Amino acid sequence: xxxxxxxxxxxxxxxxxxxxxxxxxxxxxxxxxxxxxxxxxxxxxxxxxxxxxxxxxxxxxxxxxxxxxxxxxxxxxxxxxxxxxxxxxxxxxxxxxxxxxxxxxxxxxxxxxxxxxxxxxxxxxxxxxxxxxxxxxxxxxxxxxxxxxxxxxxxxxxxxxxxxxxxxxxxxxxxxxxxxxxxxxxxxxxxxxxxxxxxxxxxxxxxxxxxxxxxxxxxxxxxxxxxxxxxxxxxxxxxxxxxxxxxxxxxxxxxxxxxxxxxxxxxxxxxxxxxxxxxxxxxxxxxxxxxxxxxxxxxxxxxxxxxxxxxxxxxxxxxxxxxxxxxxxxxxxxxxxxxxxxxxxxxxxxxxxxxxxxxxxxxxxxxxxxxxxxxxxxxxxxxxxxxxxxxxxxxxxxxxxxxxxxxxxxxxxxxxxxxxxxxxxxxxxxxxxxxxxxxxxxxxxxxxxxxxxxxxxxxxxxxxxxxxxxxxxxxxxxxxxxxxxxxxxxxxxx
Length: 494
Known about the structure:
This protein is an alpha+beta fold and 494 residues long. The strands form six sheets. Strands 4, 5, 6, 9, 10 and 15 form a six-stranded antiparallel beta sheet that branches. Strands 18-19-20-21-23-22 form a six-stranded mixed beta sheet, with helices on one face. A five-stranded mixed beta sheet has the order 3-2-1-16-17, with helices on both faces. It has four domains: 3-35 and 216-275, Nucleotidyltransferase, domain 5 (2-Layer Sandwich), CATH 3.30.420.60; 41-212, CATH 2.40.50.140; 284-400, Aminopeptidase; 419-491, Hypothetical Protein Ychn, Chain: A. The protein has helices at 148-161, 181-204, 217-224, 238-251, 268-271, 274-281, 318-339, 356-370, 399-403, 419-432, 448-455, 459-469; strands at residues 3-9, 13-20, 23-31, 41-50, 55-59, 66-69, 74-75, 80-81, 102-109, 118-120, 125-126, 130-134, 139-141, 168-172, 209-212, 230-235, 259-261, 285-287, 293-298, 302-308, 344-349, 377-382, 387-392, 441-446, 472-477, 486-491. The protein is built from twelve helices and 26 strands. The protein is globular, with a radius of gyration of 29 Å.
């Protein structure tokens, strides 16, 4: 499907949108004060080893140390990559690392919530057509390249550039499909040269320090996302346009004609109705065309997607209505996961279906739509409860976490106590201080809805409480208080 890439650059941030037929598919945001770190290479220092967790923390110069599991480590002395299979008995991490040791690491996952970055000592360098794996002999070809003749051609090219005696490995990226042999060979030499430079810089660097910084967002997009479906690349910044023009001319000349400098007076994202679509991607509820809807909840451990028929009543019977709603949801969910940058464990609660063929069709649609996702994913079968478990690789915070913060009123719960509940708390608080109320006045300071209820629905109860305690109780509205905030203040009689 034809794809447009829209790049908007301001003095504070760069935003890149991937659009298909006017619909926003993915959004990437990089703010200049918090630039992305995935792909960066650091000379770090081991600051803490946790043998009980087979893990270590490495200072890379950030506020929080990077985390490494033993599976993220390479025994550089023996040049052997540890097997990442689940059944492998890993050696104790304190036999591989020691406190204070300098270590060359690469960030694989951005800091998320309170966790630091995830890092690995398995360094990789990416270019347009290849991923270079120094100090390993691994070679591979992207699984997205399905044509067997093309896979064989690429294997033959790899045979020319692979030098196992030097300990260098390569992975052929999807963009290599139908690429010329000279282009791939040129990429291999470029990556070897880049690694040589990184290696030399790391020898001189003092830990902790940055040794290699990956490309800025607008160039990473050109390297990693641009594809044969890309028909237009729009940019609204003349300097960035010039940089991208040179980059495309050097590495992807076939796409230079797609690059355009926007001349619109209107904001680029506004002109393509993207701001409204970004705002919609922050909402919990996602309407479906039929009248049904999804409810997406992101929690610390996982994301849940609940499918509902809503206003859709169908035309034939209940089973058909449920089936059609689930089909529409299965087609919509993959886009929502990409758009919202949701990773980790995802649980999809489809409406219960009786027909086994209906279940298979819904799962098939979900898997088919998920095929266009660039991120690694895995989908399990529909369970007896109508649940689908899936995983999607998470390297960055979700769009919601990146653009929003927990509500100061509800502290992220999504709910606040009712005015009735707060009034009952006030009653209990006054009763606790009953022994101190003799010959004194009690002032209740609270938000407007709470005070309104105390003076209206709860006025009789409050009067009875004051009489029982032989105290005078008055009220004061505090405009700055949230509904859950209140203070019970004892004052001396005037």
